[in-house]
Design a protein that fits this description.
It contains four helices and no strands. The chain is an all-alpha fold. The radius of gyration is 20 Å and the shape is elongated.
Amino acid sequence: MYGQFLNESDFNQKLNMFLDSELAPNEEREFLDLLQKSPDLLDRFKQEKNFHDFLRSKIHRKSVSPLLVQNIKSKIQLTNPFLSNPT
């Protein structure tokens, strides 16, 4: 039922990666090809995509100031010697 995927868990992972635009272009094409070959998986995809789109429309991310971002980056660099530039 899951085509090239070994199990439901693998399919779910690919599905979530697709919805979050995290797949490489060739992986995306392979995933879409799989969906076209399986009506059951295509129906499941449509249901998950509708839910994903619904959530994205209802949840709004608040923006933060550039100063806050810079302060966080500075603190990370101070606490992690591997990120500091020795100049």
